[in-house]
Input
Amino acid sequence: MPVKATQSAASERIVGTMNGWGMLIVNFALFVGAGFMLRMTGMVGPIHFAGALLTLISLVLLRGYFTLQPNQARVLILFGAYKGTVHSSGFHWANPFYSRNRGFAPRKYSSPSQGDRNRAGRHPAGSGPGLQWLSTKLSLRAHNFSSDALKVNDKRGNPVEIAAVVVWRVENTAQAVFDVEDYTSYVEIQSESAIRSIASRYAYDQGDEREITLRGGADEVALALKEELQVRLLKAGVVVEEARITHLAYAPEIAPVMLRRQQAEAIIAARKIIVQNAVSMVHMALDELDQKNVVKLDDERKAAMVSNLLVVLCGNSDASPVINTGTLYT
Output
């Protein structure tokens, strides 16, 4: 069975347009000329026909004006053919038959007033409540996408909740428009997929000494997430500026158990440090007593002294001293 060839990525072409203010003067002159021709005689004739035609042309030319703000671009599409992209900001005039939209895509938000109008322009009259127009104007500014808290199994199979913020921008407008259906939805879906993939590669915490974990290796995990996203979003002409985890926690069903485990591990680690330091202090005390000939102790009394000192140093509460009023051996 023959394998279908993979479609190549769209190539962006930067083009220029005519100055909108200059064309506005020309457009005004055409209107004045058309009005003059229509008023020249009261009889209908070639001059009136030419005036009416000039008026129609002037009205059609009005559709060619558009403005671009800094870090905005417009993709020029003429009857389905890509003609280039305008990047320069200002007041422009281009072929009035260039498309104002590039079709429509499924609406993500349930209400037309929540986000979709800002993202893709006005709602098409005949496209239905679940669709929206996609404008030929694109924003080249940096965008923030903050994912919801996703429940994922980490490397050890523990369910965790994870969320991240992704800073991205469009670099190749042709790929963003022609290689994917809706690049904003594409970024959101691929970002959530990448977050799930990264979370499953690392353990939440308590890995080996050199093992990177989600909680302990924030910088390394953020770099891995950025690289994963860049590979996924390259097809859409999108550049990932930054990606970082914003929320990380155990899933509610295992959070109490994991909290107790963390508390137990913290107590054990603290006890280990206390015992190590206590042994060092006891050894130093015995050495000082022996070197300065304060008192001579046999092995049995040294063992008793070590036991008492360790109880005092390692106990959870203050020790109550017992004063021996007799001899050392009674």
